[in-house]
UniProtKB/TrEMBL annotation:
Protein's recorded name: Peptidase S24
Organism: Nitrosomonas supralitoralis
Gene3D superfamilies: Umud Fragment, subunit A (2.10.109.10)
Single GO BP term: regulation of DNA-templated transcription
Entry-linked NCBIfam families: PRK10276.1
Domain Peptidase S24/S26A/S26B/S26C span(s) in chain numbering: 74-193
One Gene Ontology molecular-function label: hydrolase activity
UniProt KW keywords: Autocatalytic cleavage, DNA damage, DNA repair, Hydrolase, SOS response
CDD domains: S24_LexA-like
The family this protein is said to belong to: Belongs to the peptidase S24 family.
Region (Disordered): 1-23
Biased composition (Basic and acidic residues): 1-12
Amino acid sequence: MSNRGGKRENAGRPRGQGKYGEPTIAMRVPESQGAIIKEFLGAYQQKRAGADREAPNVDEFLIPAISDQPTRLPLFSTKVAAGFPSPADDYVEKRLDISEFLIDHAASTFFVTIKGDSMIDVGLLPGDKVVVDRSKTPDVGDIVLAVVDREFTIKILDYGANKMPRLMPANSSGPYRPIYIRPDTQFEIFGVVTGSFRRFK
């Protein structure tokens, strides 16, 4: 009698290692319904992935108003831990226009308000305004404004082992995970974050 054929011990894919991350069962379905069932499973998987993803961490979008007459304020050359140097001292190095400092290309720049705390480790707090420049080419390690499946998010651009982009949060104390960009993900880098500002009062 031949020993060939039949089920071999430990053969096949390990349990839970398939496309859906869990054991599967064999089913008989009408041939005409195969494509419909595949579409349903694909939609279910997308919905489940969306439920695991954090809420978007951007709020309002604002366009900078650039004045023809820049407002130039004193920029002191001394470094002070607290307090304010006396204007009578000879410490005024030059005058600085805030718009000129924050904005490289006015035509391609806008502001976005941060919502949530997924980027606090890089100093972006809820309510901060970030400066986004659409004309800049994003590099690995840049903070970017991205569109993932039609939702805006601000994260650090990185690439995984499979050379596909991934968006990294910056909150070591929170339950935030990277957003992995898959071939079927709607993904676009909308701009590079070049700075931020906030008011304390």
